[in-house]
Input
Amino acid sequence: MDAIKKKMQSLKTETENAMARADQLDAEFRAATTLAEKTEETVRDLQKKMQHVENELDITLEKLTQTTTKLDEKDKAYAVAEGEIQALKRKISLLEDELERSESKGTITTKELSEASALADSINKAIKVLETKNMIDEQRIDISENQLKEAKQMVEESDIKYDEVARKLAMVEGDLERAEERAEGGES
Output
């Protein structure tokens, strides 16, 4: 009879231990499930942030392309203006030679001199206008170069943010895998 009572007591203790172990495993399972949900939420947030960064990168690259195109156009306009200035300088040189020849002439010299002087004045005005346009173009080029630098800096910052997000994502994925392994271990 004592043996049966001891056996009953032993079975009761084993049952209580098994129930406590089952409760403990159930609590561990709920904790692992909560952690997995939080990790999934974090991964979704990181994916949203990564998408946002990618969108910003696309916008920045598009702005960079536009700025580069504008810069190329300004370079072409500057080259054309330089060509016009050189042509006008050559023309001025030719006019000055003609002026020297015309001074050697007699009575016609005065009339030709006044015409050449008026022409030279208009050419000088044209040169000043072109020089003013050239200065404006140079200022625009400087602005475009600054915008290009800013765009490059934004691209570099976006790359750094992307690398950080990718690193964090890798860490979160590792944590998720460990959590899943623990969860699977807890289920077994």
About this structure: The radius of gyration is 42 Å. Residues 2-103 form the longest helix (102 residues). The mean pLDDT is 87. The CA atoms of residues 99 and 115 lie 10 Å apart.
